[in-house]
Design brief:
heterodimer; A: mainly alpha; about 60% helix; B: mainly alpha; about 0% strand; globular
Chain lengths: ~100, ~300
């Protein structure tokens, strides 16, 4: 690896005019070689489901009535029960405990 | 005459310093050092956590090495920590490489993969407990795989897999952040040079990326192994050490025996041994891994 590195860096001092180097490095991030890697984006998106699905499950479960809890748990709630939050707040006696 | 002047000049400069440091030292000493020393003292007694006690010398330590429950917990904890450390580091490095390349919505995906880190592991454990106990069996039954439809956590042989999955899910997030930080320290010029030389993607990873994030790899390995040796919360939420005692970690044995089983002195001895085991393992890991880090001098 050290050999290849010295090979590539060796020609650089041979062309000493700095102005030609500066635009080249500026052009590269704009587009040049490729741009967005859509296959990798799709792969990352699929992997992110491993994080998002348990979170979806948690949020959905928090909104269900007790009799909706059967099945896989991933179904959307048929009726939303906001009282779960009020119950949790009261049962844990949240601000009073602290 | 000269001595008081020196003393006053020393005292004048660090007054702020003392105001910042002394409270921290006092609090650390009172809340950390004294309890540690107290625990070490009780490890030499037969104290049950209540009542009277006598000094029993080193017999607690001798009994530890003949206690199957303790030895099993060491076996389980080390196996769990090794598997989890490898999985977490491989997965986190792969995700970090993906998040560091030219993908769309890069910032959003980085945020998503960071979410597990900000959630409490105990709560994640209860969520996964429900998933393992109800959701996955229902899904496997629905898609026609009834052989997989048992509760993973109820199996004495495979309950540890559920704990590993939960742990990896949560712990990968922090390692991804560290690896991302490491990847961003690598200059793009190196990849440009490698591309000119026609290096393949794998070759670029093996010869440039991995050697240059060696320090991050070391710290991730040491920190994750250390925290997995201390595994406690996940197990409380998922299996509570069961079925039987098949998933009891060292910390769980210390907690249960010490605070619920009337073995306070004995489990303090276990805790002292455990402390030194973690210190020695971490130190060895640091030495070995730092030696294989690339030096570019």
């Amino acid at each position: 690896m050290t050999d290849t590195l010295t090979q590539t860096t060796a020609p650089l001092p041979a062309e000493p005019d700095a102005p030609t180097r500066a635009p080249r490095t500026r052009r590269r991030p704009g587009g040049g070689n490729g741009g967005t890697n859509w296959w990798l984006t799709a792969l990352i998106a699929v992997c992110s489901l491993t994080v998002l699905i348990p979170l979806y499950f948690t949020v959905v479960t928090a909104l269900k009535t007790p009799d909706q809890l059967g099945g896989t748990g991933f179904e959307l709630p048929t009726s939303i029960r906001w009282e779960n939050f009020a119950d949790a707040y009261q049962l844990t006696n949240f601000p009073g405990r602290c | 005459m000269s001595t008081p002047r020196i003393r006053s000049s020393i005292a004048k400069t660090p007054r702020t310093f003392y105001w910042m440091v002394v409270p921290a030292v006092v609090i650390f000493f009172a809340l950390h050092t004294i309890p540690v020393l107290t625990g070490m003292f009780f490890s030499l007694t037969n104290y049950a956590g209540y009542g009277t006690w006598n000094l029993v010398g080193l017999s607690n330590y001798i009994n530890l090495f003949q206690d199957d429950r303790v030895l099993n917990s060491y076996g389980f904890t080390f196996g769990f920590a090794i598997v989890s450390t490898i999985l977490v580091n491989v997965i986190a490095l792969a995700i970090a490489l993906g998040l560091n390349s030219k993908i769309k919505f890069q910032a959003a995906f980085r945020g998503v993969f960071f979410i597990p880190y900000v959630l409490a592991i105990l709560i994640i454990g209860y969520v996964f407990n429900y998933l393992f106990a109800n959701s996955f069996p229902a899904i496997f039954t629905a898609i026609g795989l009834p052989s997989l439809s048992d509760n993973l956590l109820a199996s004495p042989d495979f309950a540890w897999v559920g704990i590993v999955i939960t742990t990896v899910w949560q712990a990968a997030a922090f390692n991804v952040i560290l690896y991302l930080a490491g990847l961003q320290t690598i200059s793009a010029d190196l990849y440009e040079a490698a591309a000119i030389d026609g290096a393949s993607g794998w070759r670029r990873f093996r010869s440039i990326t991995f050697p240059l994030i060696g320090a991050y790899f070391t710290i991730n390995m040491v920190l994750s192994f250390k925290s997995f040796l201390q595994v406690f919360d996940q197990i409380v939420a998922l299996t509570a050490g069961g079925p039987g005692t098949s998933t009891e970690s060292i910390a769980l044995v210390i907690f249960r025996g010490g605070f619920q089983g009337g073995e306070y002195g004995y489990q303090m001895a276990n805790a002292v041994v455990y402390l030194f085991v973690i210190i020695i393992v971490s130190f060895l890991q640091l030495r070995i891994l730092q030696r294989r880090e690339a030096s570019f001098s």
